[in-house]
Amino acid sequence: MSRIVIDIKGLVSGYRNGKNSAFFYPAFNSVALAGELIAIVGRNGVGKSTLLRTLAQLQPPLEGTVSINGSDISNYTTAEYARLVSFIPSEPAHASHTSVYEFVCMARYPYRGWFESLSNEDHHIVSRAIDSVGMMKFRSRYIDNLSDGERQRVMIAFAIAQDTPIILMDEPTAFLDLPNKFEVMRLLREQAMLGKTVIISTHDLQTAFGLVDTIWLMLANGLKVGAPEDIMLTGTLNSLMENTPVYFDLKSGQFVYRHHTKRLASVVGGALYVKKWTSHALRRMGFDVDLSGDPNAEVYVQIQETEGKVQWIAGKGDRNPTFDSIRNLCLYLRGELKGL
């Protein structure tokens, strides 16, 4: 069993507005382990960023305790805490007339102080951190001349150079395209594999559920904790989608829209992955999908594969309309349905 690094008991995080009113999340109880990558997931306004800011000691808890390595966080001095926890906010770094190298050097000041020169070892750590995120060729470029994805990499380099056992990041993949989202998560995954505890908040369920160890799912009535697979198998994820037209379909492993019309389409034949994406397209069109050849299906699609070529046949016979792409199949079905 991995060592408990963060122990949260009865934590209430939020903001007080006067003596009689407050915005806060229900009492929070959980632990974070060494080498664990955790994603905090929840609807807008539920308090993900507030929780991270509380863990980073940027705002005080309303109730409860947070312990790191068995000691309450209030017992640590500011300098000691900076050597334990690095916090990266959601906004990309902006530092006018500051190079990438100069910016990452600031991560070493908790160990040296603002007026003490960095040692050769510090400079080695900074260079290694920049190189680990693939930004060495940009080391002399100003931060404000970088793209959002590049700046996010620099922020991760900052956290690596700070060399804390705990890394907190608020929306690290926001504003990034898909390749950069996975690259940033890969870098955070590497930090966890080195034994660090990494906690992020995110709205990017696809990326998070594919790469993290544990989900802290913040619902209106309290916290649910589990592996991504636990959250999906128990149906807990759909609590996040309440009062929306979206739900998580466990069989397909996809987020889908609820359609008012309920038509049945049957898909037969073909490789499993072709059948999966054909079903995905039909569900998007509002069909329930059956894979057993139900004779009562309104639409019947056969998938045929010959010498690596895939074709879709709309109907049970071999003389029915045949298509060379899912798009063309969908266009035909859409036209047919309009005539019903």
Give structural notes:
The chain has 340 residues and is of the alpha/beta class. Among the domains are: 1-82 and 200-247, Rossmann fold, CATH 3.40.50.300; 259-338, 3-Layer(aba) Sandwich (Rossmann fold), CATH 3.40.50. The protein has 11 helices and 19 strands. Strand 9, helix 7 and strand 10 form a beta-alpha-beta unit. The longest helix is centred in the middle third of the chain and has 16 residues, at 178-193. The mean pLDDT is 87.
Salient structural properties:
Rossmann fold, five-stranded mixed beta sheet, 340 residues, alpha/beta, 11 helices, six-stranded mixed beta sheet
Q: What order do the strands of the largest sheet run in, or round the barrel if closed?
A: 8-9-10-5-11-12
Q: Give the topology string: H per helix, E per strand.
A: EEEEEHEEHEHHHHEHEHEEHEEEHEEEEH
Number of helices: 11
CATH class of the domain at 1-82 and 200-247: Alpha Beta
Query: How many E strands?
Result: 19
Structural class: alpha/beta
CATH architecture of the domain at 1-82 and 200-247: 3-Layer(aba) Sandwich
**For the record, what is the CATH homologous superfamily label of the domain at 1-82 and 200-247?**
P-loop containing nucleotide triphosphate hydrolases
What amount of the residues lies in strands? Answer: 25-35%
Overall, the morphology is elongated
Q: Note the gap between the termini.
A: 60 Å
Helix content: 25-40%
Low-confidence stretches: none
The CATH topology of the domain at 1-82 and 200-247 = Rossmann fold
Query: Could you tell me the mean pLDDT?
Result: 87
Q: What's the alpha carbon Rg, rounded to whole Å?
A: 25 Å
Major sheet attributes: 6 strands, mixed
